[in-house]
TrEMBL record:
Keyword Disulfide bond: no
Keywords: ATP-binding, Kinase, Membrane, Nucleotide-binding, Phosphoprotein, Transferase, Transmembrane, Transmembrane helix, Two-component regulatory system
Domain Histidine kinase: 355-578
Stretches for region Disordered: 715-738
NCBIfam families: sensory_box
SUPFAM superfamilies (UniProt xref): ATPase domain of HSP90 chaperone/DNA topoisomerase II/histidine kinase (SSF55874), CheY-like (SSF52172), Homodimeric domain of signal transducing histidine kinase (SSF47384), PYP-like sensor domain (PAS domain) (SSF55785)
Gene Ontology molecular function: any one: ATP binding
Protein name as catalogued: histidine kinase
Coiled coil regions, renumbered to chain: none
Domain Response regulatory: 597-711, 741-856
Reactions accelerated catalytically: ATP + protein L-histidine = ADP + protein N-phospho-L-histidine
Organism: Reyranella soli
Organism placement in taxonomy: Bacteria, Pseudomonadati, Pseudomonadota, Alphaproteobacteria, Hyphomicrobiales
EC numbers, comma separated: 2.7.13.3
4-aspartylphosphate, modified sites: 647, 791
Amino acid sequence: MRSVAGTARSTGVIVGLTIAVLIGTAALLAITHSNSASRQQRLVVGSYEILSLMRQTVIALQDSEIGQRAYLLSGQASDLEPYERARLRIETGVRQLEAAAAGDPDTTRQVREFRAAATEKLEQINSTISAYQLYGRDYALAQERTGSGKTTSDQIRQISESFIEGQRLLLARRLALLRSEQEQSDIAGLLLLAGAFLCLFIGMYIVIRGARRLENAQLALADRSHLLQSTLESLQDPIFVIDADGKVVAWNEAFLRLSGWDPAKHATLTREQLLSDRSPAMHALLEPLKLNAEAPDRLVTTRASHDGRDYEVSRGEMSGGGSVVRCVDITEKLRDEMALRQGQKMEATGQLTGGMAHDFNNILQVIQANLDLVKSAVPNDQAALARLGAAGAAADRGARLTQQLLAFARRQPLAPQPTNVARLVRDLADLLRHSLGERITIELDIAAEPWNAKIDPGQLENAILNLAINARDAMPEGGTVTVEVSNATLDRRYAALHPDVTPGPYVLVAVNDTGTGMPPEVAAQAFDPFFTTKRDGKGTGLGLSMVYGFVRQSNGHIRIDSAIGQGTSVKLYLPRTLDPVLDLSSDMGEGQSGSERVLVVEDNDEVRRAVVALLSGWGYRVVAAENPDVAAAILEKDSAFDLLFTDVVMPGSISAIELAALAQRLQPGIAVLLTSGYARDLIPANDRPDYPLIAKPYRGEELMARLRGVLAARRPSSAPAEARPAQAGTPSEEATRRPRRVLVVEDEVVLRMSTTDMLEQLGCFVSGVGSGEQALELLTRGGAFDLLLTDLGLPGMSGEELASEVRRRFPSLPVVIASGYGRSGAQAAGMQAEGLQFISKPYSSVDLQQALEHAARMAVPS
């Protein structure tokens, strides 16, 4: 019995020990697996925390960039507050990331890469802000456009996306381990159920608590996934993610539109399907990226085209395998770059020809003016007139050559005015028929009530003629050229596609032909200078470029539509005007002259002398000035002028436009006529007055007609008629008694000679000397003179001393003192003696004529 009891006891002990061992083992297993599950849960929570910290840090970087851009746009220091707050958040977030990733070498490496990229991004932002504060917005924006900031942002985005994807994969593995540990914990709990209810209760508690944590983790993961998808959808460019197995696992709506993939019909999309012919758009964009190639041969960024659009396709590798692919539409960017290159090319060409054309036009102007003067001197010599006509024709050809050079560079001087385009085209029809030949039929298609355009009519005629001749050359066997005039309105949508267009109303002039047409690559170069498809010697390549330059300089728009075998249509959109069209034909007859007073401002001495001679020969009373500063001084002293005729490009502290404004302020009724051989858009297009302009070189008849036109169109003067000076050509008592014998005292030989010429043209007999001593010696020897004209600044005896001595020794001799300081300067020097008269340098023949008349009045007995 004892042995049985002992056996039973021993058996019980063994069973108890066995049960205890089993329970202990089960408990040990339960404890072990529970601890392992808790550790995995901490790792899962740590992964979520790292993901959250990465997202917050990336958002802080975006906030800092937003703050920088707001500051660059507004310049307000308050806009930098998001940037300053973001910097602190970024530093804190990176430190927390480093602390959270301390036990994972891969994660630590990625965090270090992210820190380096974030630091570089902050330095770039700070550099841009400092550049703005030091050098201004344009410099900062130029630094921003270098692309370094975008490159760093792309790097940060790639690192963060790669980091998030890696953490997601790591999280998936940890969740799998967590589930495994929970299952083994459940088994251990079942074993403990037979041994102890408490162990079962503990096991159940562990399982329930772990399940709750898992559910929370899954909900958090779902929220993160939703946030990731929202982020992708916020991007307008197509973007998608391919995992290591070649499946598309994330995308946005733009990608669906571009690829044509419908997830509802086809659950999965693979890399092979994207590169197949089923998706032509994605095949065209992804083929250059070589997604199937090995890593050394795979491109990171490339350019591709599809359906007329250009894309920049970039790929970012993920640490766990797979790629993030983004397709950026750069069509508008490339179009803007092309327009910029075209503008730079035209600008370089204009700089090359502009200065030369300006000087050449001045030379031609001197030639043309002197030819006109010689014509009036030999009115009955037919042989001489024929030679002069040939010389004038040669000058005209030179002027046309200069205009061609300036036209395609958009630097030709234009005279835009309200123009009836329909009437201009009808008047041009006969010339077109004679120019194009019998095999070409000319048709006009003019709208019922066409608008008027603000354009240079002469240049528009040349443009239409150029286009018609090009159309004729495209129809060697004959055909039809149609010139269409209609009204058109270009809206904002059209302007968005053509950056050079301002939305609004235009007059459309279209020249259409039924010729051979042009392929797209030829049409794209049609407006380029010197580009031609004609044989050598048959074309200069300047025709269409001239038309392009003229239309663009006139604030219009030009386009060309052509197709092989269908013909070509060139459309000119000319800016509409509501101003009335002036009919100045009554003022353009031959032989007309004038008696108005004209202020001529020209810095070229030869041109100035030629213009003064022309206007004086026509009866105008002319005052000349070599620059706007001198002209302004003249107007301040005497503003009674009927017309201001001024060059545009001149040296001086004020511009020709400012001079015109000053003249109209001092003399409200004054007319203004501009001239230039090289305008180069010097007159701003906005908020400028519409001053008429005549281009150099011009014929005498053209200048006369233009003068009469602007004088006829001017506003009536507010000055009373009796206050205006007597018109030239009207005999007066003073004119019949004015001095004829004049003694000129001037030490500058050239000035003395020019003054002598002007006085001789006024009918005077002139003697000239270079000093006051010589003048006194000549007078003492008995020289008989009616007037003494002396400069104020003379070598030796000054003009002031000479005048005083002459007034003392020859009291009946009138004295005129010429001074650069005028009357006020002379009076300030104490020269107020009776019988003295003052004229300001530079003086003209009109000033001398007035001085002579003043001397005649002084000689009349009281």
